[in-house]
Specification:
By secondary structure, this protein is an alpha+beta fold. The protein is built from six helices and five strands, in the order ββαβββααααα. A hairpin with a 2-residue loop joins strand 1 and strand 2. It starts with a strand and ends with a helix.
Length: 156
């Protein structure tokens, strides 16, 4: 039997009908709310494709059960980070640096540094590399991604 669960996503509170309160947040975002920024990758929280912000902290939504969210916690997905008209500085920097290639990792590669820059407006290159270390990318745009994060930091 499904049960309504209230979650606050991208500035709006919405009800999601779920059969299992331990359903991963990723499934609610994609399947119930139609948000496709966070992607299913490994399903183990190791690749970063599913990264979202919960109260400003980058978390892996594939291993975050809905039941662990407290009422009022703010979830932000790639879609809620910025808009086409006003992209977040990290999104804009990725476009300016042409840091996107295949797109598989890009959700995590944007969401992770966006959380880093919210907490540290002037990270060192080592801190940026550490923040990106647990995001899998196989297309080889690592240099552009690093440049994009540095550009975003300079523009925040």
């Amino acid at each position: 039997m499904s049960k309504p669960v209230s979650i606050h996503v991208n500035g709006r509170t919405t009800m999601v009908e779920v059969d299992d309160p331990d359903m991963p947040l990723l499934y609610a975002l994609r399947d119930n709310l139609g948000l496709h920024g966070p992607r299913f990758g490994c399903g183990l929280g190791q690749c970063g494709a599913c990264t979202v912000h919960v109260d400003g902290k980058a978390v892996r939504s594939c291993v975050t059960p809905l039941s662990t969210l407290s009422p009022g916690q703010q979830v932000v997905t790639l879609e809620g980070l910025g808009s086409s008209e006003q992209p977040h500085p990290v999104q804009k920097a990725f476009m300016d640096e042409q840091a996107v290639q295949c797109g598989y990792c890009i959700n995590g590669m944007i969401m992770q540094p966006a959380a880093l820059l919210a907490a540290n407006r002037n990270p060192s290159e080592a801190e940026i590399r550490q923040a990106l270390a647990n995001n899998l990318c196989r297309c080889g745009t690592h240099v552009r991604i690093l440049r994009a994060v540095k550009r975003a930091a300079a523009n925040i």
